[in-house]
Amino acid sequence: xxxxxxxxMLQELNENxxxxxxxxxxxxxxxxxxxxxxxNTHLLIVLEGSLxxxxxxxxxxxxFVPGNTIHQSPFVMNAQDSLKVMSDCESEIxxxxxxxxxxxxxxxxxxMEWLLEAVTENSxxxxxxxxxFDLLPEKRIIYTLQTFxxxxxxxxxxxxxxxxxxxxxxxxxxxxxxxxxxLDKILVDLAEQRLLIKQDDTFFVKRxxxxxxxxxxxxx
Length: 220
Hints:
Layout (H helix, E strand, L loop, with lengths): L2 H13 L7 E6 L13 E7 L2 E5 L4 E5 L4 E2 L12 E5 L3 E7 H8 L3 H23 L5 H15 L4 E2 L2 E3 L6 H8 L3 H13 L3 E4 L2 E5 L14
InterPro entries: cNMP-bd_dom_sf, RmlC-like_jellyroll, WH_DNA-bd_sf
Organism: Listeria fleischmannii
Protein name: Crp/Fnr family transcriptional regulator
């Protein structure tokens, strides 16, 4: 479902809601923690920005970007003390009452198809996030960043994806499951291979593993 089609669906749901709480548009500030109790009864849909799921050790498990939905509650999974959802930047989200959505979607097959596709995408993405730990740390960092950039349709220049400004070294270490000391060594190796480069405070990750030369100059 396109971004505009998603907004049209949410507008229709909003216009037909029985109670005000059934469809709620919210803006989360940068580094704001989501009240996960809201997920007990509602689906969360990301419209703009980026959220991530992290565990009690602050390891980032999964990112949620525009078009993604969070359909399960940590309370339902008995993981409320182990998991939390945080915003990476100012983000626009929509909370849709789960039962209301399912009742409405029973007469709108395209809405039910969207939900099934969204849930499947989230599940497969989470499986990938778990499988990445079978990779060596260096490949793990590259593959996860490439996948993330493709997911958010990051801007590409000369064969490199530009990472969002909120992806810092600290976030990289938390997302890749490595220490900062190990990450610094990996970044040096990746820079020498021109797979991950840096200009000022911005990171660029190579779109593919190949021998193409890039016009983007690397700095350490």
